Amino acid sequence: MLIVYRYRVKSLTGLLSKQARAVNFVFNYCNDRQKDALRFGRRWLTGFDLNKLTTGSSKELGVHCGTVNAVCEQYAKSRSQKKRAFLRYRSHKKSLGWVPMKGRDVKETPCGLHFHGREFKVFKSRPLPAGAKIKDGTNFAQDARGNWFLNVCIEVPEGQVRAIRNGVGIDLGLKDFATLSNGEKIGNPRHLRRLEETLASAQRAGKKRLATNVHAKIVNSRRDFLHKLSTRMVREFDYIAVGDVSSARLARTTMAKSVLDASWSSLRQMLAYKAIAHGASYEEVNEAWSTQTCNACGVVAGPKGRAGLNERNWTCGCGAEQDRDVNAARNILLRGSGHGTPAEGIPIL
Ligand SMILES: [Zn+2]
């Protein structure tokens, strides 16, 4: 399994910015050649073809030849992934800096990375796993604030799949960020809320610099929150089921829907890869009707539609008293493959 270690770069950032210009140049060259192929009805260029066309250009451009190759290959890959005949040009002003590398060209050093005859120093927040093999896809990338980061792509062995002794269903929602089937509620971090208010007022006042900085802070602390939550889940539970919620299906909210969607999908991604690394099992289940169905008797009797959104608690005909979100989380767990009937709880497989 491939995972990425991310470090802030603290030296030679000027050099990286210079190299990023060369990378854009190569990328745009690939785009031009692709447009030529379209114009003259020729065969579309593969990464291999583009590598041949750019052979020998690295010295003049002042970048490593592996970088040129990685750009060409990524161009061809992005083009087919995005299903486009050609891509948008990279501009130095609008695109964030990016310098890809080949895994074979880099070496880890105690305080950073050796690449292209130089040592790039980073803030080493954690060491790479001992004996880790650095793979292609490793790159330097800039964020919106202009800071450079090193993303090291490494191969790690998959954890042995644990026997399922306990499981959890997670209902992602608006009021609480997540509700677990064991009744625990995980709220949205309060400081995030405060930062969002600061961001909104900065945007209204047209303070661009402040808005960019606060936005970056929000992205960082949300990522931190999701990392901590997902790590805790895969450590505590052997089986994790999450509903396939998307904001499109939810009623009106005051929060930006794109933000919700982004958090939900990145939590699901983190759970998926951390589950593999820790040997837990992860599943995404269809959560249609999970709110309305009683998890004790299976009758559809719960609150319906928008009117029911304010109904936090309800009593089923069978006598079960339900908390709306906990009930949904239990249903999600029941629908996954790692469950038994409600009365049995989670069987040992
Ligand atoms: Zn019931």
What does this entry look like structurally?
The chain has 349 residues and is of the alpha+beta class. The chain has two domains: 2-155, no CATH class; 167-335, 2-Layer Sandwich (Nucleotidyltransferase, domain 5), CATH 3.30.420. The protein is 38% helix and 19% strand. The strands form three sheets. Strands 1, 2, 3, 4, 5, 6, 7 and 8 form an eight-stranded antiparallel β-sheet that branches. The protein has a five-stranded mixed β-sheet with strand order 11-10-9-12-13, with helices on both faces. Strands 14-15 form a two-stranded antiparallel ribbon. Helix 6 (208-236) packs parallel to helix 7 (257-278). Mean pLDDT is 87; it is low at 340-349. The structure holds zinc ion (ZN). Zinc ion binds at residues 294, 296-297, 299, 316, 318, 320. Zinc ion (ZN) binds at residues 294, 296-297, 299, 316, 318, 320.
